[in-house]
Design a protein that fits this description.
Structural class: alpha+beta
Number of strands: 12
Strand order of the largest sheet: 1-4-7-8-6-5
Largest sheet: 6 strands, mixed
Length: about 190
């Protein structure tokens, strides 16, 4: 088992590699005109609930692949029009009104690095109780990642929401609770 320092270095190297602008930027694919809203119901089903602990949604933000636990994802939908934000922080893209309230939408690329704000997004990922949503690109099916296959980070001082690193698939693993706590500190409750 690798030490905490090795895991921190692995995450730092991975993020540095992915956050370095490419010499030739590839244009984002045009959004599909087909609107497909996907509802995920984590409160249903006995055996399926146990499987969700290892099920992740792969999101891409500014070229960085991140895995978000499916247990914390409520809905996925094509990026809708947003109400402009009432603050100037580049992380906040605005608000999206839904039938049960309003979600604050954050630019997942800007969460990774403020320099990456404004990267193309196609999908809105609604989290947990529908108060927060992530704007990113989701172009893959969900994947199973064994907890043993993740190099976990404990007590990280930078990017505390980055819970660990998976080598297969190669991606950062998001700690949703820590991300929401960080967003509330950064943007206010």
């Amino acid at each position: 088992m690798r030490t905490m320092h090795d895991a921190e270095q692995l995450v730092a190297d991975y993020l540095a590699e992915l956050l370095t602008p490419a010499a030739h930027a590839v244009p984002a694919p045009a959004p599909s005109t087909d609107v497909k809203v996907v509802a995920i119901e984590p409160w249903r089903g006995g055996a399926a609930t146990a499987d969700k602990a290892c099920r992740y949604l792969l999101c891409v933000a500014a070229g960085v692949k991140l895995a978000v636990p499916m247990a914390d994802v409520t809905h996925l939908l094509p990026m809708p029009p947003l109400t402009p934000p009432n603050i100037t922080n580049p992380i906040c893209l605005g608000r999206w009104r839904h039938p049960s309230g309003e979600a604050r939408v954050v630019d997942l690329a800007a969460v990774l690095s403020p320099d990456m704000a404004g990267a193309p997004v196609t999908t809105l990922v609604i989290l947990r109780d529908r108060i927060w949503a992530l704007a990113c690109v989701v172009d893959e099916e969900t994947v199973d990642i064994s907890p043993d296959a993740i190099q976990w980070r404990d007590g990280a001082t930078t990017r505390p929401w980055l819970a660990g690193m998976s080598l297969e698939p190669k991606c950062g693993v998001v700690g949703t609770t820590a991300l929401i706590e960080w967003l509330e500190k950064e943007l206010g409750p």
